[in-house]
Fold these 2 entries.
Entry 1:
Amino acid sequence: MSRRGILLFAAMCVIWGIPYLMIRVAVRELAPVTLVFLRTGIAALMLAPVAVLRGELRPLLARWKPLLAYTAVEVAIPWVLLARAETKLASSLTGLLIAAVPLVGALIVTLTGERERLGGRRWLGLLVGIGGVAALVGLDVGQVDAVALIEIGLVSIGYAIGPIVLARYLGDLSALAVVAASLVLTTLVYAPLAATRWPSTMPSAHVIESVVGLATICTALAFLLFFALIAEVGPVRATVITYINPAVAALLGVTLLSEKITTGMVIGFVLVLGGCVLATGKNPQVVAEP
């Protein structure tokens, strides 16, 4: 891997590991719908003009149905559910649970016949990964909110379906245009909802910093860097960040928010990571954009 590729890879491992921390801070004072509106709105203002200047948005009009589907399962629904879940779950645990997304993706493509059926090795990976998820929440069941777990489960399903929709129906279009359009659409959907949940007082500096960071660094800049990483090292190597982001999320949660790493979290993450490697053949086909 080139030096540029290494730098891009390292940047993405960090950038997509920190959203969980920022979301956890932001939802202390902002409603989830308000946070999603601000995050997507600011990011859309940064990316949409670039896509317009390149003339890349017009081809999306003929694919509006899959575009809406992709927006719903990859951005609009997962991001609000993720924010809702983090009002009850620690950011470190949330990040580790999202590590199971490649497992969900592997199961979905198998059940839908998108690819060849999984062999024994990959089924073993799914079972090991499921055991890891169970360990993440089961060994500390008294400290975990059931509704929040369901929300994270739905987020994982959405993150797994999104790339399938993208690859099948939008794969020949500009990735930047698809992301920009998705952000614009999500902003429009959440604008009226955010207006009803707008904070009555100015949020604290930490919350404002988290919102700006989520929008500019973890969304707009992150997508641009990720596209550059794919161009530099290829899509297969680029997806390896899926294995590292959760560890970064856990480390930040512990060091900056004083969250606790439990035995269940350690055992669970190791099992989930091992299961992902087995089930996806070391090449995860989905990348969760938190």
Entry 2:
Amino acid sequence: MSQSPPAVPLYREFTQQAQIDAQYNTALTLPDPAAPGRHYVERAQHARATLRCTLDIPFGPTVHETLDIFPADVPNAPVFVFIHGGYWRALSSKEFSGVALGLQARGITTVVVNYALCPHVTIDEITRQVRAAVAWTLRHIGQYGGDPARVAVGGHSAGGHLTAMCLQTEWARDYGLAQDPIKAALCISGIYDIVPLRFSYLQPMIQLDDGVIGRNSPAFSARRCSTPTWITWGGAETPEFERQARLMHAAWDAQGNSAQLRAIEGANHFSVIHGLETPDSALCNWLAEQLGA
């Protein structure tokens, strides 16, 4: 009797889409998949209702290129630019106003970036928009009481990926800024090797091809950069998120860059950013230390 040939891997050891989806479809293991979204919306509404804020400030030419600023109550405050997740194809800045709750209490101004989504635009275009938002912040945050010399950037999930893409930016060549203008970076549960997503349930929306993957997998394009970085993930996430973090850390370390690699124990893919809502959390403590808040 002839035997079936061995299955050809789609990516690494994964031979079926279902195996990749089990790693990257972050809601599959939740008892209530809608609960994280309800939490984000509730905390975001609370932040907008209780904190000073200026919303929907345009930073670019398209309607989606806006940001929301939550100023600290101290003059010349350090700044944290937050980039939301949603696998580049969902959510907006408005679900993530809550990240300002912990930071504002630490004297840190928070900027929450909005950007256009796939499939209406490509990941290349989203990367361009986020870089433009960071450049806008560096140039204009002084008008909102922020210190342009103390701007940190961070993001969650797709936002972690986009944060890493910001760290790859040639800021001097492309924007006329200092080469490394970002004071600190926080990469939370990011995707730094986006190849496996080409074989996942996300592909019809994010439409990856060889060019997009090559230009937007920061684990394979790390440059020398002086920005201190914390690469983290939730201790209760699937093994692929830990692998992604370790891969990015190894690439960053190979360039001689400063990076901390440490999980947030007990956190899942959604609760991993809850610390930004709490002033004395590990995330807020790290940012405050890096920014001198």
